[in-house]
Structure formats: structure tokens, C-alpha cells
Amino acid sequence: MANLLIEIGNTALKAAWAEGMTLGKAFRFQGEKVMEFILSLTEKEKPQVMTVISAKPLTAAEEKQLRGECTHLMILDRDHTDILQRYDLPDYLSYDRAASLLAVRYLFKGKPCTVFDFGTTLTIDLINEDGQYRGGNVSPGCLTRFKALNRYSKSLPLLNIPSRIPREGNSLESSLEAGVISGIMFEIEGYIRRHPSNVVVFTGGDATYFAKRMTQSLFIVSNLVMVGMALITEDYVEKNIQ
């Protein structure tokens, strides 16, 4: 039987079927009817293990409903942090960050890494050559910065991520675009200079956008969280399912 990996994030749900470490068909859903969408995935095939990362704790009713859709259910949220301790990761990490770090340990074993995740937030995490977590930082993501400028200053328009930006703006819009994008670029480059020997890994929705603007060599791994979830799930299968 296949396993079903589900990440319920701040803005979207992502899911993928997996056979061991092999990822299959992937899905993305943006909307309020999250449970209905999950049930549509399990309508024809019930997974052996359903692993769910959720940005907010699931209700008891939701958990009961999910248990009825699989043989084994593993929930990874703020109410279930024990698994983080098993992997020697601090319990303040969100599980999507933790899964990304486990994936990096697996994909780049024996190498120190700096991991950038471009989403609602921009997270920067470090692991050393032994796979130990060395800490990380969190700042607003790209769209979050544009929204904050609009929300907290009534005179500034709400803009989206531009396809091109000048080095210096020559209008209100272009100065906002250049300021936000250049600020993030300077931030990225500063972390890379601080750890010049680290492998640089980009993931998240805006990873490709910023990777195209980099001169340094780096790796883009778009499904990093899913790879980490597959690792967690495979460990669970080996230890708990005969």
C-alpha cells in the first residue's frame, strides 16, 4: 500500500503519494474545504500511512475523520512535537522546517548546508557536516513584505512580485519593487558570505525566482518538505509496521 503525505500550510495544502522514498503524483489545493479535498484523495485508495503536517492543530473531529481514511495516521503539529526530539531537532521548529532539514541531511549527507525556504516567511536554517542543526532565522517572505508595506502605510499600493526590477527605482512602484527584492537578495547574499563553504539549498514557492538572480552555485529542491515527510514516514513504517 502507498502512503499519503499531506502538508497543510498557511496559504495552501500540498500532498503527494509515496512508496517508501519514491514520491508519486503531487497535488496542490488552495481553499477552505481542506478536509473535503483530503477525502477526495483517499476516495479510491486508502493509504497505509497518512502523514499530516499542519500549521495549526487539527481538531479532535478532524483527527477522527482522518483516522478513518487510512490504516495508520501520523500527525505532525504543535501538539505532537515528540518526533522532533527523536531526530535531535528543537521542538520550536515547525514541522515543515524540520522535514526540510531531514531531507537535506539525506540528500547532502556529510556536507554543511544553508537552507533557504521562500514562502509566507523566509526561513534560513543551518546544519553542519554531521547533520546537526546549528540554528536558523525567520523573516517576512516576499509577498508578506509587499502586503506589510501596503497595510501599514496607506499611501503605498499593494504590489506583486515583479518579473523585472531596476537596481534603483524611478517611480513609486518600481522603488517598492526594487526595495523589497533587493533587500531579500542582500539578505540571502549576506548569509551565504557568512558560511561560504556551505552547500546552498533553495526551496519554497519563490525559490526559482530568486535562484535566477543569484551568481553563486546552489541547488533548488522544490519538494524538500515532501522528501523529509517520506523519510519520517518510512522510519515509522520500519519501526511500527511489520
> What is the CATH topology of the largest domain?
Nucleotidyltransferase, domain 5
Tally the structural domains: 2
Assembly category? single chain
Instruction: Give the overall average pLDDT.
Output: 94
Distance between the termini: 13 Å
Largest sheet: 5 strands, mixed
Order of helices and strands: EEEHEHEHHEEEHHEHEH
CATH class of the largest domain: Alpha Beta
Summarize the structure.
By secondary structure, this protein is α/β, with parallel strands linked by helices.
List keywords for this structure.
242 residues; alpha/beta; Nucleotidyltransferase, domain 5; 5-stranded mixed β-sheet; 8 helices; 10 strands; 37% helix
Q: Can you describe what's shown?
A:
- The chain has 242 residues and is α/β, with parallel strands linked by helices.
- It has 8 helices and 10 strands.
- It has 2 domains: 78 residues, ATPase, nucleotide binding domain (Nucleotidyltransferase, domain 5, 2-Layer Sandwich), CATH 3.30.420; 116 residues, ATPase, nucleotide binding domain (Nucleotidyltransferase, domain 5).
- Helix content is 37%, strand content 25%.
- The strands form 2 sheets. Strands 3-2-1-4-5 form a 5-stranded mixed β-sheet, sandwiched between helices. The protein has a 5-stranded mixed β-sheet with strand order 8-7-6-9-10, with helices on both faces.
- The mean pLDDT is 94.
